[in-house]
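Data availability (excerpt). All sequences and predicted token strings are deposited with the supplementary files. A representative entry, Amine oxidase domain-containing protein, is shown inline so that the format can be inspected without opening the archive.
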Amino acid sequence: MDCRRPGGRIHSDWFGDAVIEYGSDCLKPASDEINQFFQSAIQDGLIESPITYTSLFRAGDCRSISNPIGLAAYELFKKIYCEVYYTGGNILQHFSFRVDQELEVFPDHLKEDVARIMIGLLAVMHRRHGDNLPLIQRSKDGTHLQIPNGRVRLSLGMNGILSPALKAIPKEKIVYNKPVQNIRWGAVECENTPRVQIKCCDGSVFAADYVLVTVSLGVLKHTASTLFCPALPSSTMDAINKIGYQHRDHIYAKFRHPHWMWYRPIDTIPEWNVELEKTFGECSWLRSITKIAPVYGSETLLQVVVDGPFAQLAEKNAPLDMASDLKKYLTIAHGIKNLPPITDVRRSEWSNNIHFNGAYPFLPTGVSADYHLHLACSLPGCNAPVTPMIFFAGDATCPKPLNLLQGAKISGLREAVQIHELIKTRSTSEVEVGYCN
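Structure token line:
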């Protein structure tokens, strides 16, 4: 974690006339493996590599459901949905009856996947209507009122979420600028002996009974083998090594004066064409742009998001070079002439920051979601002679694809409850708690 401020990847900052967000708030599942026919075509030179093939649906264990099955189930769902529209009646009852009928058409080895998709799509409807879904008639489905101010935005940035928690903690309890050298744990419980010792790079040592590790997965990948003494168990190390950690760079360009036009949208991502490749080359960071949008509330700021390995390349470019390339890109790709000069560029640089080494976790192809649970396990485990003393929190410890804020909050509360229960059951009257940030 960055030793100079709280929040980690929750990072807001003022830039020009608006607040910008450097933080990443999503978990992307990995794309599917290319099937054998596509692999053969690539080897024979019939199709240019790389090719990504994304599935529409995933099972509860993060296993991808093939597109033909997914599309068949989706078309079946639409068919039943239209039937309810014309016949009326109770949505939930009709769906349950018709799904049971249609599942008989599918082979036995496909019924479970089709049923999962149907239930998932029905859950989307349930989320829209809440617990009143069984009472809603199809003729009324889709009738809604627009809620005023439905989109909530923090005027001072996402850092504002941290303010209540920081105010509740005494200032002397939070120590910044203390990079950790190693964590010694596993001591036998006895009087006047600390269960955990945290040694910092400046030589200072903190004693604790419990340590909650909240550093990013990228930091654990680079330091876990030497940070803990004794070493972490193989199940935890396997989880750290096998869960992926993706790169993302948030880039903000400040133009000299406003130039947005309501009739000329700038938030579309044009296809990478021959002219762009001729101008910038095959390995330009510009080809991995996934978002272009004006910053909300600003007249001069433009946000650009770059995902994947090219995000690391973008972070290594000089700001002036990025400004020049971005202006050329907008001119060629969007056909915008006479763009004002870009006077300043800021970027998140998560991948090249040693306190993060990446932006967000994801599950690579073939990796089970159980590894998130393995990483969330406290140490030592249940069969150890001593109670747990090392705990892990963060979005990488959540088995469901939650965004950064949800993952941080849910996992933090999960470990806080566990530590609180352990404190209550301990026989000693004085307990010290340490935080490893």
